[in-house]
Amino acid sequence: MPANELIRSSASAMAAKLAAKEVSAVELTQAHLDRITEVDGGARGVHAFLHVNTEEALAVAADVDARRAAGEKLHELAGVPIAVKDLIVTKGQPTTAASKILEGWMSPYDATVVKKLRAAGMPLLGKTNLDEFAMGSSTEHSAYGPTRNPWDLDRIPGGSGGGSAAAVAAFEAPLALGTDTGGSIRQPGAVTGTVGVKPTYGAVSRYGAIAMASSLDQIGPVSRTVLDSALLQEVIGGHDPLDSTSLTDPSTGLVAAARLGNVKGMKIGVIKELHGEGFQTGVENRFNDSLELLRSAGAEIVEVSCPNFGYALGAYYLIMPSEASSNLAKFDGVRFGLRTLPTEGPLTIERVMGATRAAGFGDEVKRRIILGTYALSAGYYDAYYGSAQKVRTLIQRDFAAAFAQVDVLISPTSPVTAFKLGEKIDDPLSMYLNDIATIPANLAGVPGLTLPGGLADEDGLPVGIQLLAPAREDSRLYRVGAVLESLLEAQWGGPILDQAPSLSQSVLETVGTAAKEAN
Ligand code: GLN
């Protein structure tokens, strides 16, 4: 099979070819590394990667091939390569959180999820770009330059995990890991036509994910199919004694649910507050198409109201910066990465810390540290942080009431399709509004999945459909997601990424040629 066909297949199809010895893990890994060389660099490259892990990835692949040849029983995904968001620590590769403050820093240990990928024999292709410390919705807040959306290189790939989503959409990696604090797996998935899952809070260990807002953060899978995300979540999930919030009884049977894919008799709730006004027409249209398909497959579609969701964004932008301001205090010029000395005056530790943080953090990170420090300050704590926590309880109650009526909830993932690079960078509020539909799940700890729902009429760009389930019921997302995916693909005549103009025609190839000529 030619390399450019091989890299376009799903991770599960790649796994089947490896098992049948139709392709070796080294060939598969090399094909992805070649694709990265071809499309990721240069002035108009995708720039999904901050670091490419060529030698180690090939060595792991060679080891898998040798073990397979020796007849060893391997994990289903052994030899299938994966990219890792650069917020997740990896031994032997740099971890920057896309911040200058961690430039050149190497973690002395692996995150639990990375250990699990290694144990499964999955070659790590490298570390993907993000908004600095995962703060943003466009990947433009990366200190190392933005990632471009493979559908249109002048547009954003979403954020904060734009690198992971773009890598998967551009066939640079079949799978990737992301982190989702307010939507950073799901919104990039929506705007790049890929699948992404925020598991139930605690279902996947956070040990080794650089903390943004600890009570909201969750690591999860990024892929091109629903089944692939289920396969990956089963690799990375499970109890971890190193994470004090890790569940002892997370959802199981995810892959089985994705393979079963049945919605007959299920009740699916349309969240009244999460569509309509403020949502792009093409997003709304594709959302309605998906409802129709689910209805035709035997699901009962009902409307539910979550009256407090309108306060979710406000509560999030108090809770998240409060936790982040505290989590980011450790970047002090003493323990990690960058140290900048003040240009004049005495060399006290406070002044070194101040100079380091002034030079090492970007504007968005500083904005949130200031916001969080203010919200937590004496005299304001109850009015801001305390009130936000009360709103959080109300949102949890909205979910509880909704899930008393329906099995899963559905909404568009993002109110708009991919916007132009530079369009919202100077307008934090309009940037924050991209997560209006994803944030409630983080505040309540429930799982959410996004899958491509087609292309918006007005711009031909991908629209994401979000499914939400009760905590510990991640399997329902896979069960419903798989049905919707197969019905949609039957309409499109194949995967949505086959319709991406930049991918299927020549734009990325042109980028690749330009990059080669520049070398
Ligand atoms: N875009 C949201 C924010 O800027 C979500 C970030 C995330 O999920 N890491 O906070």
Structure notes:
Strand 7 (267-271), helix 10 and strand 8 (300-304) form a beta-alpha-beta unit. Helix 8 (226-236) packs antiparallel against helix 9 and helix 8 (226-236) runs antiparallel to helix 17. Helices cover 41% and strands 11% of the residues. The protein has helices at 3-6, 11-19, 25-39, 54-69, 112-119, 162-169, 186-192, 226-236, 254-260, 281-296, 312-327, 349-360, 363-376, 382-405, 428-432, 439-444, 474-492, 501-504, 507-518; strands at 49-52, 82-85, 124-128, 175-179, 195-198, 219-223, 267-271, 300-304, 408-412, 448-455, 462-468. An 11-stranded mixed beta sheet has the order 1-3-2-4-6-5-10-11-9-7-8, with helices on both faces. The chain starts with a helix and ends with a helix. The chain has 519 residues and is an alpha/beta fold. The model has no long low-confidence stretch (mean pLDDT 95). It has a single domain (3-309, 393-518), classed as Alpha-Beta Complex (Amidase signature (AS) enzymes), CATH 3.90.1300. Glutamine binds next to loops.
- The CATH topology is Amidase signature (AS) enzymes
The small-molecule ligands in this entry are:
glutamine
CATH architecture: Alpha-Beta Complex
Report the portion of residues in β strands. Answer: 5-15%
Number of continuous helical runs? 19
Give me the oligomer status. Answer: single chain
Low-pLDDT sequence parts? none
Helix content bin: 40-55%
Overall pLDDT level: 95
Please tell me the total number of domains. 1
Strand order of the largest sheet: 1-3-2-4-6-5-10-11-9-7-8
> How many strand elements?
11
- CATH superfamily assignment? Amidase signature (AS) domain
The coarse overall form would be globular
Biggest β-sheet strands, sense, barrel: 11 strands, mixed
Structural class: alpha/beta
Rounded to the nearest angstrom, the radius of gyration is 22 Å
